[in-house]
């Protein structure tokens, strides 16, 4: 027997014993578990195609639209109204307060730390009476749909680790993102579109964004977020090459699938199954993607709702409209990234530009989802990776200042499926420097998001390098006060 024959014989023998033992174990396990899942609880909705084969309990949300404001929007200029800062404006932050939080290296050589009030006014809106900055007049009009969390805290102080932490539960690159975990756990409600779609605003800021934020990490590669581009080719290399007929492409894919299946029978490498899934999804997307991203038939009142920027592919407004169209088609997780919120200096002008490019479209998305009945089972999330300091970074003048990174407190909001409407949760101290009441850690937020989708965050795991990993690592509690 030569070396190749010996290897094949060994693989076949081991494969048979492995499959046989797993089969007997499955029979025994099914008898023990009966109608409950292997995770200890009765499963909810069956047959979604994910590893869970259902939800741990009935889901409030079917899908998520996550509006990630990359760079760290200042909570003091957006939703965390601090009138007491007017009394302290220009005065040094008390050492007893400053010493409670670490600062980034960007203010290491700064000798003075004057507190600075927001240059923008705040007003109360809606029945909830939530305070909203003048920068966000459109968001203010939908404030009673929002569940505003003013007491977010994170462990990271620099951009990339903080973005990774918010999106993957770890400051280190290489872990699966939220969308990938949901794709792995729950599968898809639309077999012709990806489970997890990523949309990036073009020309929205110089702050870099690492694609690991929507990576599948150690999960099978078909759970990777698929980035849709602006322009005529939303997904590269999706169309058939010139001269290749669709019938010929189908025959080629069928033959490749048979070859891959033979390889899988031999080696049982799960990545081979991922390749088969990716080829099939690419073929289906040839017809489904052009229809999903074509907004040419949208009526004028929709563009008036989102703003005229929605007519320009790749803008934040256009991506918000695309997100609604993908939500209509039951894409599970739709991730928007809008960069440019990193105002270390010239904050008043910089944050005004950001608000002008996002405010109307954000509110328009909420209104559009609501009028279509989609807000009832769609969870919308808005927020960045951390907040900003209440003291000025750099020189404070009569009309200009900056703010450094601040992990100790920041604001996010949610709207839609399963969360309380018109709620303001948590509170910061008079300086917006520390959380004073009801802290919500990043892992708590992630646990709550999964809960709204019917998933127990402690039971959606993946064994990698000898350890069972999960999105929330070994932390996280569902914030039940936020649940409707």
From TrEMBL:
InterPro entries: Alkaline_phosphatase_core_sf, DUF1501, TAT_signal. SUPFAM superfamilies: Alkaline phosphatase-like. Pfam families: DUF1501. It comes from the Bacteria. This is DUF1501 domain-containing protein.
């Amino acid at each position: 027997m030569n070396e190749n024959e010996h290897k094949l014989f060994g693989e076949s023998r081991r494969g048979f014993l492995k499959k046989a033992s797993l089969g007997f174990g499955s029979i025994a396990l099914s008898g023990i578990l009966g109608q409950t899942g292997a995770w200890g609880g009765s499963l909810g909705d069956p047959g979604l195609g994910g590893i869970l084969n259902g939800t741990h309990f009935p889901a409030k949300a079917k899908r998520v639209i996550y509006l990630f404001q990359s760079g760290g929007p200042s909570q003091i200029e957006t939703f965390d109204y601090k009138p007491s800062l007017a009394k302290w404006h220009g005065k040094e932050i008390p050492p007893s307060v400053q010493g409670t939080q670490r600062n980034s290296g960007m203010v290491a050589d700064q000798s003075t730390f004057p507190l600075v009030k927001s240059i923008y006014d705040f007003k109360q809106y809606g029945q909830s009476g939530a305070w909203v900055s003048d920068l966000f007049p459109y968001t203010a009009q939908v404030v009673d749909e929002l569940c505003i969390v003013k007491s977010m805290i994170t462990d990271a102080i620099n951009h990339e680790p903080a973005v990774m932490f918010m999106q993957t539960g770890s400051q280190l690159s290489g872990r699966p993102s939220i969308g990938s975990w949901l794709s792995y756990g729950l599968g898809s409600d639309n077999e012709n579109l990806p489970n997890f779609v990523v949309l990036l605003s073009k020309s929205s800021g110089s702050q870099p964004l690492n694609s690991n934020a929507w990576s599948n990490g150690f999960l099978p590669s078909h759970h990777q977020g698929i980035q849709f581009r602006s322009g005529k080719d939303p997904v590269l290399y999706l169309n058939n090459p010139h001269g290749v007929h669709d019938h010929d492409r189908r025959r080629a894919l069928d033959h490749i699938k048979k070859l891959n299946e033979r390889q899988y029978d031999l080696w049982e490498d799960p990545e081979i199954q991922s390749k088969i899934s990716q080829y099939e999804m690419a073929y289906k997307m040839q017809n489904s993607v052009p229809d999903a991203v074509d907004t040419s038939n949208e009526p004028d009142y929709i563009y008036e709702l989102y703003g005229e920027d929605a007519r320009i592919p790749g803008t934040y407004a256009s991506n918000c409209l695309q997100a609604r169209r993908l939500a209509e088609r039951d894409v599970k997780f739709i991730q928007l990234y809008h960069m440019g919120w990193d105002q270390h200096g010239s904050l008043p002008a910089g944050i005004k530009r950001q608000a002008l490019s996002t405010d109307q479209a954000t509110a328009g998305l909420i209104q559009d989802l609501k009028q279509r009945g989609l807000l009832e089972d769609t969870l919308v999330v808005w927020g960045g990776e951390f907040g900003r300091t209440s003291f000025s970074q750099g020189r404070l003048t009569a009309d200009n200042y900056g703010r450094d990174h601040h992990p100790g407190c920041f604001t996010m909001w949610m709207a839609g499926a399963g969360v309380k409407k018109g709620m303001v949760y948590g509170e910061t101290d008079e300086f917006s420097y520390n959380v004073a009441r009801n802290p919500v850690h990043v892992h708590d937020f992630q646990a709550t998001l999964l809960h709204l989708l019917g998933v127990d965050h402690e039971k959606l795991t993946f064994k990698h390098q000898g350890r069972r990993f999960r999105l929330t690592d070994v932390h996280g509690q569902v914030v039940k006060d936020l649940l409707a």
